[in-house]
Design goal:
The chain is an alpha/beta fold. It contains ten helices and twelve strands. The termini are far apart. Bound molecules: pyridoxal-5'-phosphate.
């Protein structure tokens, strides 16, 4: 703390990301990165940007990427916003769409960046408890609110909310923005982007960090009514005109265009997930139904913190949250078949 700080900084509670270890020999199943590399075509497109044109600023609007996303989802470029990771897109949405007199609503067990943005922007919020099966309780959101946000599939549970339930939420809250954070939608869900033309209060965010294997590039996006996008553009243009560099715009656009590679890698992750779920159940774990590239599991007789420590000793890192309701769960990213086997072997190796 220092006298030079703006006063509110003293009370900020920042987000703590999962560990990015310096050791390279670890089996890293803690931050939901894709075990497969990005599309080779996307890598070639990025390499092609490494030339003298880097002396020039990039396109401030990332039009090339907006067009690729719009083509992929069959929407207009004016319905698309792009930013430096979906975390940045979410931050702009919190600032530009959720700062109202009524509280923002989100699940009690969810992405832990949401309360951090509320702290940053002074947004009041209320959490709505997941039901006993850890599913989102749609009826619980029928209360006064200045907005609703949840990931679908939810994080860290992996549980999917069906599109018809999302429609019921949208219809019950016509005066609030409902933001569906689809960081993991490509691993088993149907995107709510299919609904944006019918619901002007729906904003959907996605990231290229998970299903498109580009966590290191930092690209995220939002799709919704042009009026919602306009709010995000105003914030963005009051904050940083060039959130995406030339390399990011080129790589992300081609990642969207290379559907074959994307679909193949997603299918491999999903097949591995199903294999890991059965193997973990065979070891006595309870695994929540996952539509994501991770699973959320607990063992009825074994302490989760001790399991995480035991795995770590054997070079496997997973995520453990010391939060109420979920402190006996482990969140485990799906890796390559070899990494998944290392996880299972390590679990068997814990006494
Ligand atoms: C990973 C993740 C994000 C952030 O993605 P970035 O684009 O890497 O910033 C957003 N929401 C959820 C639920 C996530 O798991």
């Amino acid at each position: 703390m220092s006298k030079f700080w703006s006063p509110f900084v003293k009370n900020l509670v920042p987000y703590v990301p999962g560990e990015q270890p310096k050791l390279t020999n670890l089996v890293k199943l803690n931050t939901n990165e894709n075990p497969y590399g990005p599309s080779p075509k996307a890598i070639a497109a990025m390499q092609a940007e490494l030339n003298d044109s880097l002396r020039l600023y990039p396109d401030p609007n990332g039009e090339r990427l907006k067009r690729a996303v719009a083509d992929y989802y069959g929407v207009q470029p004016a319905q698309v916003f792009v930013g430096n990771g979906s975390d940045e897109v979410l931050a702009h949405a919190f600032y530009g769409l959720f700062q109202h007199s009524k509280p923002l609503l989100f699940p009690d067990v969810t992405y832990s960046f949401y309360p951090v943005y509320c702290g940053l922007y002074g947004i009041a919020y209320e959490t709505i408890a997941l039901d006993d099966e850890f599913q989102i309780d749609v009826a619980g959101y029928s209360r006064p609110n200045g907005g609703i946000i949840f990931p679908n599939p939810n994080a860290p549970t992996g549980c999917l909310l069906a599109l018809d339930a999302i429609e019921r939420l949208l219809q019950a809250n016509p005066d609030s923005v409902v933001l569906v954070d689809e960081a993991y939608i490509d691993f088993g869900g149907t995107s709510a982007i299919a609904l944006v033309d019918r619901y002007p209060n729906l904003l959907v965010t996605q990231t290229l960090s998970k299903s498109r294997s580009l966590a290191g590039l930092r690209v995220g996006l939002a799709v919704g009514h042009p009026d919602l996008i306009e709010a995000l553009e105003r914030i963005k243009n009051s904050f940083n005109s060039y959130p995406l560099d030339r390399i990011a715009i080129a790589g992300a656009a081609v990642a969207f265009e290379d559907r074959v590679y994307f679909e193949q890698t997603c299918q491999q992750v999903v097949a591995s997930r199903e294999a890991v779920v059965s193997a973990m159940q065979g070891l006595g774990f309870q695994v929540l139904p996952s539509a994501a590239n991770f699973i959320f599991a607990r063992h009825p007789q074994r302490d989760a913190a001790a399991l995480a420590a035991g795995l770590r000793e054997q070079g496997v890192i997973v995520r453990h949250f010391k939060h109420p309701r979920i402190e006996q769960f482990l969140r485990i990213t799906i890796g390559t078949p070899e990494q998944n086997q290392a996880l299972l072997d390590a679990l068997k190796g814990i006494g």
